[in-house]
Specification:
CATH superfamily of the largest domain: P-loop containing nucleotide triphosphate hydrolases
Bound molecules: adenosine-5'-triphosphate
Shape: elongated
Structural class: alpha/beta
Mean pLDDT: 87
Strand content: 25-35%
Order of helices and strands: EEEHEEHHHEHEHEEHEEEEHE
CATH architecture of the largest domain: 3-Layer(aba) Sandwich
Helix content: 10-25%
Number of domains: 2
Distance between the termini: 16 Å
Number of strands: 14
CATH class of the largest domain: Alpha Beta
Radius of gyration: 22 Å
């Protein structure tokens, strides 16, 4: 996991955007085929984080990446990228992108592709780009059109990293990679974030490994942002509380248990996944959960009260509960 107190992000922009968040959405709306994929989404992604963008198929992850990259406009609200309008000249040279279709010129060799990257990007780092293709065993002389899907992903990532961007927007970067290349590229990305303070936003369906790679999570489902916060904070905020009820039909959860995300009942044993538990009085046991378990619970319960850094929940806890814990500086 990367440290939130790492080096200051590399910065090629103006002073005004030096401290702006990597992404800042206010009332963001994205149309899907059958209505809103995201509606009234407000969240902030601080600089220097490795962000897991998570949600079910069709939740709007690719659409969000496309809007941030300036490829399509938002359908409502505002999204700022490094303090700027997406796609504006002030921000385009500072972002690196990887889209699901990995658009590359198929006739070029890998070496020609990297040369083009060098010619188009004044801040190009050839060694960084070559290290990616070398680590992934992609021959420099091979034509892009003859590479496997996973090998093309390596070349596209080499182009994105060679640009030395302040923000990397990666749409399912690991989906096509074998375990060895996945490890190599994950390592390269984490090193980039740790050594240069690059913000990385990557959509993924691999929840089991998220806590190893990402230190911030953005979870969207059924048109809502459900979580936007540090992974450590998300984990610390949730508990699984088990109660033994006096009778199978008796009401189980004591009032004021906290923000209940999900409950399960088996006979007299009742478990509740609670955010910011206020009182565990009467509980038979309390245990922590993995990040994956928490994210899956929100995905099963998309009507749950959202946990979004910097915003107040409808059922916000009082002072002294985890929401009032000091957060890392952004
Ligand atoms: N080119 C397009 N034109 C119109 N609607 C689109 C287009 N691409 C996607 N959509 C719609 O936008 C919504 C969000 O799709 P999107 O691809 O952003 O979701 P996603 O979370 O990335 O999904 P997945 O996990 O399957 O990649 C869906 O309703 C989808 O049908």
């Amino acid at each position: 996991m990367t440290s939130s107190s790492g080096p200051a992000p590399a910065h090629h922009g103006d002073d005004a955007s030096a401290t702006a968040p990597a992404l800042e959405a206010v009332g963001l709306g994205l149309h899907g085929r059958d209505g809103w994929a995201l509606r009234d989404g407000s969240f902030t992604v601080p600089r220097g984080r490795v962000v897991g963008l998570v949600g079910p198929n069709g939740a709007g992850k690719s659409s969000l990446v496309a809007v941030a990259a300036g490829l399509r406009p938002a359908d409502a609200g505002v999204l700022r990228v490094l303090g700027h309008v997406p796609g504006s000249p002030a921000v385009l040279p500072r972002i690196g992108t990887l889209f699901q279709d990995r658009p590359l010129e198929r006739r070029f060799t890998v070496a020609e592709t990297l040369r083009l990257g060098r010619d188009l990007n004044p801040n190009w780092n050839d060694a960084a780009a070559r290290a990616i293709v070398d680590n992934c065993d992609v021959p420099l002389k091979a034509r892009v059109g003859r590479l496997s899907t996973g090998q093309r992903t390596c070349v596209a990532l080499a182009l994105a990293l060679g640009k030395q961007p302040d923000l990397l927007l990666l749409d399912e970067p690991m989906a096509d990679l074998d375990p060895q290349r996945r490890r190599a590229l994950t390592g390269a990305l984490m090193t980039r974030a740790a050594e240069h303070g690059t913000t990385i936003v990557m959509s993924t369906h691999t929840l089991s490994e998220l806590h190893l790679v990402c230190d911030y999570v953005l979870l969207t489902a059924r048109g809502r942002i459900l979580i936007a916060d540090d992974t450590e904070f998300v984990q610390a905020a949730h508990s699984l509380i088990t109660y033994t009820c006096p009778a199978p039909a008796a009401p189980s959860l004591p009032p004021q248990a906290g923000t209940v995300i999900e409950t399960r009942r088996s006979g007299r044993v009742h478990t509740a996944l609670v955010c910011f538990p206020l009182s565990t009085e009467g509980a038979a046991s309390t245990s922590s959960l993995s990040l994956e378990e928490i994210l899956l619970a929100y995905l099963r319960n998309p009507q749950a009260s959202p946990l979004i850094a910097g915003s107040t929940r409808d059922d916000a806890p009082s002072a002294g509960t985890p929401d009032s814990h000091e957060r890392p500086t952004q």
